[in-house]
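so i finally got all the pieces together for this one. its two components total, 218 residues if u count the protein bits. some of the lines might not be protein, just check the labels. i wanna see the whole assembly predicted at once instead of chain by chain like last time, that was a mess tbh
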Amino acid sequence: MRVKVLVFASYAEALGRGELEVELPAGATVGDCVAEIRRGTGAGVPPAPLVAVNRRYALPDRVLAEGDEVALIPPVAGG
Amino acid sequence: MCPWLTHDPLDVSALLAEVASEGCGATTVFLGTVRRSESDGDVVGIEYSGYDAMAEAELDGVLADARARWPEARIALRHRLGYVATGEASVAIAVAAPHRSAAFDACRFVIDQTKERVPVWKKERLAAGTVRWVGPHGG
């Protein structure tokens, strides 16, 4: 299945872009997705970043579905 | 654009007008402003960026939580995105309530939760011309 992954701020700078498409097997988790991104892009993303799925924070064991919007969230600094 | 995020300078008078009510005897305002400190690297401005759609959802959640805890409080918030120079406000929160306890407490809660939850990032621009990303809860 294919998921769209948005990356922001320092992660986007490290990867040189704001959006990736990641190909994953059915049943893959958030953790699997991050591992796949790290495999492809090297050290731009840490091993256990904050992740959102469909605009809500998600844990690494969250199972992904085709069409999910995943986002890698660098340490937030709003307010 | 959602009601909480703006690229324009913040209008505190407008926020006060939003929460004003004859039933409220206490109003608090929090302003987060860009601070310049030579010991912190001499910041001249900060570029704020966000995951807008999720920031909106998280701010909806923060305000809903605040309203659940302080149902008598009227709350308005604006968070600025884009470049904010030293001395200018990046976030403004106004709370009006019948009495001061709720006005103080709800305002504190909203800024604390905003800093914890909302996917917004800060890139500092320094007087020397360099830039750097701010870590978690910086400032």
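The interface with chain B takes residues 6, 8-10, 13, 52, 55-56, 71, 73-79 of chain A (CB under 8 Å).
The first strand of chain A starts at residue 2 and ends at 7.
anyway lmk what u think
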